Amino acid sequence: MVALQLSCMRGVPAQGTSEWELAEAQSVAMDSALLEQLRTHARESAFPNIHAILIVRHGTLVFEEYFNGFERETRQFTASVSKSVGSVLLGIAIDRGLLPELAERGVETPLRDALPEYADLLAEPEKRDLTLRHVLTMSAGLEWDEQSHPYSDPRNDWIRASRSDDPVGFVLRRPVVTEPGTVFNYNGGLSITLAHLVERGAGVGADRFAEQYLFGPLGITDYVWEHLPNGMTDTDGGLHLRPRDMAKLGQLYLDGGVWRGTRVVSQSWVRESTREHIVTEGQPNYGYQWWCGDFHFGDRAAFTYFASGHGGQKIYVFPDLDLVVVLTHAVFDNPMGELHNSAILARYVLAAATGKAPQPDPVRLDSVALARYVGEYAASEQRFFEFAADGTVLGVRTRFMFNDRTYRRVRGR
Questions:
Q1: 38 or 396, greater pLDDT
Q2: Cα(244)–Cα(74) distance, rounded to whole angstroms?
Q3: Comparing 13-27, 97-111, 155-169, which segment has the lowest mean pLDDT?
Q4: Alpha-carbon distance 65 to 63, whole Å?
Q5: Are 195 and 189 in contact, with CB atoms under 8 Å apart?
Q6: CA end-to-end span of the chain
């Protein structure tokens, strides 16, 4: 049986506390009937393995539900949401002048100047054009494979880096295989390189830096941040937070880096972090360790940027709708389960926020948007789905395969 902790939206915490102000959905122009449907369907296990659903509209918490033994005070393993938090920390460090190497050229600073302690590894001609922007956008062009093998496999490049005595050195030793700035390649080692910059500039661990300059102002006190074997804060994927605190991070960015009247990170950093810098294949586009793009629902689209973690952990921000949504799951062994996030957003949350009920008719997209969905996706050991375009309509068919077990996109155009 699914265990629930139901939240009451009638009380409002006292002003000045670190907790959320609460409101009824209709008071912030959201369709309460649709959200009640979401509550009912989630209770009936329509979305197996879900942990939490939180919706914040106009700065107030209007929906909060917990499932499968999770409660309001339960910390969620956020996985790669940690990367986005690491990006926030780098922005704060730059704002505070803790990285003088970046003072003149900012993110366009050559990596050899930003990391003089690794100058010997960056002296190769093909690495001379590497910049901090390339690190932030995962477009450094370094050889890196974090997708072919699971994280339990020592052949996974992230596992190899994280277990080394010098993870940053491990990353920077990789050869350049594509021109920097041209190809997105998911690389958690680059996220750790950003943590190294913060820790060197601040003189403390990234977790301690966050405690003083990010978590402290936001009233986040109950968290765990894992460390790598060499002692570095794991900004690739080691942060555990309460979903309410995940929502605070989304609201901080929605409000341009300000939390309840206090400037935490510069508006320019927020703006640059959450806009498209590199186009990906078969995924949303990428900013500075944040994903971004148009989310299509019905015959509409809404721009969103979001932090995303393995297993279904999400902090979505919809700036045009003044909306923050936190969804957490445990679908580590079934990435297709992450599609529940899209269903929750499209069928309930965005429909409730826009007054646009989901339509059963086919969704027609322009050719650029449509192309992002075309390809083959593994659903099990032997079964996969092929999405194909016919004009402006996306079709799907089920096919079978008999290769090794995989849970990732296997081919796309």
A1: 38
A2: 10
A3: 13-27
A4: 7
A5: no
A6: 42
